């Protein structure tokens, strides 16, 4: 299916030169004079090679049809990360290179969106916000509740986040999974 280059987003799959690429970043640039362009960084699905491309925003790009479904995380072992589709109970094994940095967020039963092409997982998409528990941080300092400074914290024993000074060990917080940033205290 042909789409214009400016509509490409992270996670889309593009077909170029008979190869498939997953979009890592896509940025539209509109100069004061001249032609607007779209700059895209992609990773080859089969070989893992990163490629940068620049198109005019109105240029047609071949977008591959990808099956996207919700899956629940089950467990990880030497064969990879295992997910289950909640309706049909089909299981899917995903390799380490596809999971990448998102592995720190995977907890038992977490619902994620997996993109597959010909039965092989090519991309994972986490929920935008997750609730985690602070397991390690500096002690709460009295009088710094309204300060704009942040301190480092470890959540669920693996995720590193900068939190406000009033957050202590055992506090449940909501974080943004795109940039590991603190959003708010959990309301549960």
Folded structure, characterized:
- Keywords: Cytoplasm, Elongation factor, Protein biosynthesis.
- InterPro entries: Elong-fact-P_C, NA-bd_OB-fold, Rib_uL2_dom2, Transl_elong_fac_P/YeiP, Transl_elong_KOW-like, Transl_elong_P/YeiP_cen, Transl_elongation_fac_P, Translation_prot_SH3-like_sf.
- This is Elongation factor P.
- It is found in: Cytoplasm.
- The protein has 188 residues and is an all-beta fold.
- The chain has 3 domains: 2-62, SH3 type barrels (Roll); 67-125, Nucleic acid-binding proteins (OB fold (Dihydrolipoamide Acetyltransferase, E2P), Beta Barrel); 129-185, Nucleic acid-binding proteins (OB fold (Dihydrolipoamide Acetyltransferase, E2P), Beta Barrel), CATH 2.40.50.140.
- Helices cover 2% and strands 52% of the residues.
- The protein contains 1 helix and 16 strands.
How is this fold's topology laid out?
Layout: E1 2-4, E2 13-16, E3 19-29, E4 37-44, E5 50-56, E6 60-62, E7 67-77, E8 80-84, E9 91-94, H1 96-99, E10 111-117, E11 120-125, E12 129-137, E13 151-155, E14 159-163, E15 172-176, E16 181-185
Antiparallel strand pairs: 1-6, 2-3, 3-4, 4-5, 7-8, 7-10, 8-9, 10-11, 12-13, 12-15, 13-14, 15-16
Protein name: Elongation factor P
Subcellular location: Cytoplasm
GO molecular function: translation elongation factor activity
